[in-house]
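re: ur question from earlier - yeah i can do the single chain one, its not a big deal. heres the input i used so u can compare w yours
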Amino acid sequence: MLEPGRVLSAAASLAKATLRPERFDRLPRALLAMAPWGPSIAGAFAASVGRYPRATVLADDRGPVSAWQLWVETDSVARALRTRGVGPGVAVGILARNTREFVTALLGAAKVGADVVYLNTSFAGPQLADVADREAVRVIVHDDEFDDIVANCRHIDTIGGSALADIAAQRSFVPLMPTRHAGRQIILTSGTTGRPKGAQRSASGSASSAAGMLEVPFRARDTVLIAAPLFHAWGLAHLSISIATSSTVVMQQRFDPEATLAAIEQHRPGGLVVVPVMLQRILALDDDVLARYDTSSLRYIASSGSALGGALATAVLRRFGPILYNIYGSTEVALATVATPDDLRAAPSTAGRVALGTTVKVLGPDGGEQPMGVVGRVFVGSGAAFEGYTGGGTKESIGGLMSSGDVGHFDQAGRLFIDGRDDEMIVSGGENVFPAEIEDLLNAHPDIADAAVVGVDDKDFGQALAAFVVKRPGAKVTKKHVTDHVRAHLARYKVPRHVTFRNELPRTATGKLRKRDLQL
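and the output i got, formated as tokens:
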């Protein structure tokens, strides 16, 4: 049952995100502008342009751009896509970092009702070609830096960043005919355990996911720095929210921790959107660097995309104050839980409480709901769940709830804790071990910057625990220090039998560990 206080808080956030005193004519102008496009991202952008045409909608490495200027540029992109046969039911792939090209490609595709496939910027050429072929992509819009990679897609029309800028600069006196067709949004799974799969979601599903984040203190006409990759559901959701609330999006082509702090000081955003590894890199800066920049404009830091970890959550709260929000979900189930600053102070490793409009249950082997404190598989239900993989198939469902792929438990306060992936359980000497508990402990060690634990074949135990550790600069930690630290805090069977030091751990663009790349 939802607490009345949470409902009232969400209602207040909704009001701040959508309602601000303004001239009486702005709302009718917004509705009139949106009407031809319908409830799509193109329609939301049309409403913002109708309301505040001169307002800065985007500030990137090339500088600021107004809502009206971006509207005109995306009209030109939409016309170019139509000449290439793009329209409803046709897929456009976007392979771009957090750049203006990403946004113009997205809005241009939305204006012609195309499906959009968000391509991972970490793809190698053959992997890109495989995904583009499987998703039947007609046109790929990409940053110039990916020219060589895109060359693998020999039978697909491509538009590079420079060419897109030239197209956007073209002007026509003929109005672009709108479409009310809202194309599918196809977000790829991380592919950490296999080939990336296309997870399709409708416009209504994306809106439901955004509505579940109302406990984050969004405001209309705010400024938001989105550091998380836009091709990932987390960054994309915040881009959509910002467009719908007539906010200014600040973004940088490549993430750099100090450059992010400098951008906060320069643009004075109310929100910062990150994945956990970005927070880790920011806090790894020297204290004098952290103190150099004014970050007092931030009302919230929103983190998702991979496990936050209790030690990191505590460190962020200590450095930036009670403004951290941790959101748990997945590409398939979308938003599941939200941890507020109060939740994270009380229980730093929590994934949070069930989001508004969402059902989360922890189920046992028989499909029944587990008692409080008992670990089971996490299942989620909401209007934001995806509509199945584009190649066919879906995630397991029980009673209308979809598997998140994780195992976890609830505490007495109704907070969810994720104990690990249900496919990462390691059986060592007959004991079941989830790596997340050991990783969280190691990451809290003052001499350890990053850690991962996997299972390796062992003739005596079936599987043995292997820890891969990144030392902090100047740290003298040894293998014995690592094993002694685990032995002092956890059961004996959770102590790693192997410890390997690395300069860095393999991670995806959203910070998830690529554990299949970890070998002794």
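The chain has a mean pLDDT of 89. not sure if urs matches, ping me
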